[in-house]
Specification:
- It is a single chain.
- This protein is α/β, with parallel strands linked by helices.
- The protein contains 16 helices and 7 strands.
- It has helices at about 5-20, 25-35, 35-40, 50-65, 75-80, 85-100, 105-110, 115, 125-130, 130-140, 160-165, 170-175, 225-240, 260-265, 285-290, 295-305, and strands at about 120-125, 145, 180-190, 195-205, 210-220, 250-255, 270-280.
- Strand 5, helix 13 (about 225-240) and strand 6 (about 250-255) form a beta-alpha-beta unit.
- Helix 2 crosses helix 4 (about 50-65), helix 5 (about 75-80) packs parallel to helix 7 (about 105-110) and helix 11 packs across helix 12.
- About 25% of the residues are buried.
Amino acid sequence: MKGFSKSNLYSIKQFYLFYNQGNEIFQQVVGKLESTNLRQVSAGLNPSNNESLTIRLQVDDEFGNHPIFQIPWGHHIQIITKCESVNEALFYVQKTIKNGWSRAMLMNFIEVDLYQSQGKAITNFDGLLPDIQSDLAKETLKDPYNFDFLTLTEGYKERELEDALVENITKFLLELGQGFAYVGRQYPIKVGNRERNIDLLFYHLELRCYIVIELKAKEFEPEHTGKLGYYITAINHQLKKNIDNPTIGLLICRTKDNIDAQYSLESSSQPIGISEYQLSKLLPENFKSSLPSIEDIERELIFYI
C-alpha cells in the first residue's frame, strides 16, 4: 500500500495506539482461541510449523472479523479523536454496525454522549419484564435526553415543550434512538365515558411493544407515575395485540430526585422508566441573531484600541 498523506499516516498511528491500550483487542481475540490451539501452546507443547501456521491464520481471521474492521475509516477518525476509552469506542463501533449509522449520525450520537446516557434511566423493568426485554428496554432508554435543537423562552410551559418536540419530530426520534416508530401526539384513549389524551405514543420495532411517553416541564412528582401507569393499562387493553410485548412507559421530566423516583416505581405495577431532559438553547432564534457575535465584539475592541 502506498500514497498515504502525512495526515493519513498520523491517523493510522493514532488508530493503532488508541486500540493498543492495554492490548484490549488482542486479549479479546486470544480469549476466543484459548480453548483450542493456543491453550495447547500455553501448556508447553511444541507445535509443528503447520500447527503454528494454523494458529496464526486463526488469529489473523479473528482480527479480520473484529468489529473495528467493519466500519468505514472516516467513522474511525471521529471515534478515535472523540472517545476517551476503548470501551467507549467499541460501543460506538457496535452501534454503527447494528444501526447502519452514517458518519453524520455517528457524530451526532457522540456529541450527545450516548455512551454515558444510554441505559442510565431509573426503571422498574427488572421486576416487571422478562429478562431479555428488560435488558433491551434499559439499553434503549437514556438519561438525560438532550433537546438542544429546541429554542424556548425561559418561562416555557409544558405544552410549549411538547409542541416544540413534535415540530422537530425527526430530531426528537433521533435523540430517542433507533427503533422508535411515531404513532401519534395527544393520542386519544377513551376509558368509560371519558376521553383522555396521551402526550406521545410510539411503537418500538425491536422491543415489539407500544411506548407511552409523558412529558413534564417540571420536577418529577410521584403522582406522575400513577397517571402514566393508567395510560399503559389502557393501551394494553385497547391497542396491544397478542403478538406484542407489554407496553412500556417513559416519563421525561425537567429534573428528578433519584430516590423519590425509585420509591415511586417500586409502588407501580407497570414497567416505567424515568429520565430527565436538558435544554441549552432557551432564547428565540430571532433574538439570538440580534446579539453580537464574538467576532463582532473583537472587531469593536480592536477599533477602539
